[in-house]
Specification:
This protein is of the alpha/beta class. Helix content is 39%, strand content 22%. The chain contains 10 helices and 14 strands. Strand 13 (312-316) and strand 14 form a beta hairpin. Helix 5 (115-125) runs antiparallel to helix 6 (130-143) and helix 9 (273-281) crosses helix 10 (288-307). The longest helix is centred in the last third of the chain and has 23 residues, at 245-267.
């Protein structure tokens, strides 16, 4: 039997690479030995390779599933949330999530959700071609299969949680999702940073129906919030650990300012969000799933520029057009 490459962070703390069928390859989930059992932070995407990994990891660490009593979800995205229902059935654990992402999980994943259609309608208003919109809607509907069965969720409204027999502060960092949370252990100077800060790539910041209309503004504020923490090591959900968090935060802030400047220049004479997205991302061979994020991230940047007074937007011939104020 192939072994899972479990990283021992220190006593009672384990970093587990759970495979996902996306380019980042793994989502790193965290398992903690408690005085009275075990806790988990994030669980992965519901598909066979992920289940197989968890079962092997439990065998390697001699974990009795029935002793797992707490599962904390940093946010509602399927690569973090998807296996929560399966894991809850195996363990009987309580599954905790922020109030904001509880609402988004209900909106996006509950039976009868029309989120895919709402995304499609929003994209049509920004001149996304009908064929691509249809592919995006189909991709979203297929994605919903990978969060079933849904867990019974509890809203996490505490300032602290116990992980690995230590107290961790719950840090709200909206941006990547409205209710994204990080966990900070001040004595160890550890931060479970989830998708808020990644080591090599920049987290996706997107506008979606039902979510905050200016996520990039909130993301920038959240970056400054974690930059103020005294962090020796940040443990992200994708990629390598981050040993120079403040430097990485500065890198990401510079990236977004550069992207904002570029998109402002593209839109200055009057462009739809899709036209701007195509200018930025069109050289890549993107799937419908990837185009969804590219378009929604473009919207986040353009709407942030509108909020800063650097662009304006108006409806023109049935489509939303962005342009410089002076036009």
């Amino acid at each position: 039997m192939l072994m899972v490459n479990i990283e021992i962070i220190q006593d009672h703390m384990y970093r587990i690479p759970v495979p996902v069928p996306f380019p980042m390859k793994y989502v790193y989930c965290y398992l903690f030995r408690e005085a009275d059992g075990w806790s988990i932070v994030d669980v992965g995407f519901h598909y066979p390779d992920a289940i197989d990994t968890w079962e092997k990891a439990f065998q390697q660490l001699h974990v009795d599933c029935r002793q797992i009593h707490s599962i904390y979800l940093t946010h509602f995205h399927p690569d973090h949330f998807g296996l929560a229902g399966w894991m809850q059935r195996q363990t009987g654990a309580q599954v905790w999530i922020s109030r904001e992402d509880y609402a988004m999980a209900e909106r996006v994943w509950k039976e009868g959700s029309d989120q895919a259609e709402q995304v499609g309608e929003a994209f049509r208003q920004h001149s996304v071609p009908d064929e691509l919109v249809s592919q995006i809607e189909e991709s979203m509907q297929k994605l919903a299969q990978h969060v079933m069965p849904l867990p019974s969720l509890s809203i996490l409204n505490r300032d602290e949680v116990i992980l690995g027999q230590k107290r961790w502060k719950v840090i709200e960092v909206p941006g990547h999702s409205d209710g994204l949370i990080n966990f900070y252990q001040p004595e160890l100077r550890y931060l479970l940073v989830s998708d808020h800060v990644l080591e090599r790539i920049t987290p996706n910041i997107s506008v979606w129906p039902g979510s905050h209309p200016n996520p990039l503004q909130r993301y920038v504020s959240s970056l400054h919030r974690v930059k103020e923490l005294d962090v020796a090591i940040a443990f992200p959900a994708h990629g390598e650990v981050i040993r120079h968090l403040r430097q990485r935060v500065d890198d990401i802030l510079r990236h977004h300012e550069k992207r904002l400047h570029y998109m402002k220049s593209l839109a200055s004479e009057g462009k739809t969000a899709y036209e701007v997205a195509f200018a930025v991302f069109g050289h890549k061979s993107l799937t419908a799933h990837q185009w969804r994020f590219a378009i929604a991230e473009t919207l986040a940047h353009l709407d942030y520029l509108v909020s800063r007074g650097e662009l304006q937007k108006e409806k023109r011939n049935g489509s939303v057009v962005y342009q410089s104020e002076e036009k």
